Amino acid sequence: MRAAYVVEPSADHPVDALRVGDLDAPPAPAGWVSVDVRAGALNMHDIWSLRGVGVPPPDGPRVLGSDAAGVAGDREVIVYPVLPTAPTGRTVTHATLLPDAGHGVLAERVVVPAAHLVPKPAGLSWAEAASLPTAWLTAYRMLFTRAALSPGQVVLVQGAGGGVATAATCLAVAAGAIVMVTSRSPAKRERALALGAAVALDSGERTPELADVVVETVGPATFAHSVRSTRAGGAVVVCGGTSGFTAHLDLPRLFAREITVHGSTMGTLDELRSLVEFVDTHHVRPVVDSVVDLADIHRQAGRMLAGAGFGKLCVSLS
Fold first, then answer.
1. Which of 50, 105, 284, 307 could staple 68 via S-S, CB 3.0–4.6 A?
2. What CATH fold (topology level) applies to the domain 136-263?
3. What is the DSSP letter of 175?
4. Overall fold of domain 2-131+286-316
């Protein structure tokens, strides 16, 4: 089977560490099933894996990828990519992604726990369906579980264009929120407005009103602006740090305005089911930047590393 994998990570040249080639199809352990993958998508987690950050060195080829949609038997499905190591039924605080456990999904055939399959909505393309399990699930949990977003509230999304950011924009608009976005790119600001954002600002620009919820994926480059832009009693929800991992914290503003800062990671299987139902019910189409054949995945990885995409960078395996 064709697969995208890493053998020797490279901290300085992660795209060069990406390999595409034929590997043996994995056997399915008890309670697991095989899925013929039709499409997958890249995430920053794949870039970190190519850098060798956060995972043990691979013992032989390690297939990448946590986003996939395909066919299991006669069912069209979306793969839930989280393996809880200490399941509580409520959180994913202690969890392992499939690729980190040696079961990456950027391959023509993969094996996953049978319970981790969610029916694919008929109205979504394979690439759109494959966009949901990581970035869109992360955005869904940030907005509705961590921030308890309700209609009419104001949401600020930092870094319009990324997978989580575009997902948060679309989901918040569909939920009846007023959405503001930021980006250094005028083109990305225009595209965010086309998705339904009410306001698109240059990074760091003063917002016309304070936000009830701030979706923070960028980190230190925008974190101070996120806190400044949050209303009294509002929330900043953080899921990553593409600009780094150490941010200055404005403590007086936090306690004076009683702002809450939430950390958020991925989502539960039930939240993925709720996300898929939400997308289907509200006729939301995940934003796909582009789809390439698996053989051209290096191009997608390079675009992700450069921050050049708008929405999900997908690959076709059919």
1. 105
2. Rossmann fold (3.40.50)
3. T
4. Quinone Oxidoreductase; Chain A, domain 1 (3.90.180)
